[in-house]
Amino acid sequence: MKKKNIALYIAMAGLASLLVMGVAYAQDEIQWLEHDIFVGRERPAAAFPHALHADEIGIDCLDCHHIYENGENVWDDSEESDCTACHKLEAEGKTMSAEKALHANCKGCHKKEGKGPITCGECHPWKKK
Predict the structure, then answer these.
(1) CATH code, domain carrying 51
(2) Are 64 and 105 in contact (CB under 8 A)?
(3) Per DSSP, what are the bridge partners of residue 80?
């Protein structure tokens, strides 16, 4: 009888560990695209499930991340990515503003693929307090 109880406790502990890890992982996969240049905005930062796009859907990193040199995208995943390093609040020359670049990239892909959020509230949800 004691062996059955021990096995049951071990199984329950294992399931509880999986549950805790699953919840922790699920919370980590949502990134809030917060950039210091956006002050006094009407809506909160966009919620972005990076793992969904990169791992589950399999979108190539270079479809979103880019650093151009001589017309070639030379970005690699060892580099820190910050869109606002190049895309500023206002457009500069041929470089789009950050808002326009982010909207064109995300909404453009969602419209082309026929899935994913495209309205303001779908991407920029009010966080629950």
Answers:
(1) 3.90.10.10
(2) yes
(3) none
Instruction: Provide the token pair at 33.
Output: 């695209």
The single-letter DSSP state of residue 61 is: G
Compute the chain's Rg from CA coordinates.
21
- Alpha-helical (H) ranges within the chain are 2-28, 50-51, 98-113, 120-123
What is the extent of the structural domain holding 63? 32-123
Distance CA 100, CA 117 (A): 16
Average pLDDT over residues 112-129: 88
Three-class secondary structure of residue 75 per DSSP: coil
Name residue 75's amino acid: W
Q: For residue 97, give the amino acid letter.
A: S
Residue 21 has pLDDT above 50, yes or no: no
71 near 94, Cβ under 8 Å?
A: no
- pLDDT the model gives residue 25: 44
Site of tokens 């001589």:
70
Question: What domain count does the chain have?
Answer: 1
Percent of the chain's residues with pLDDT above 90: 46
For residue 17, tell me if it sits in a domain. no
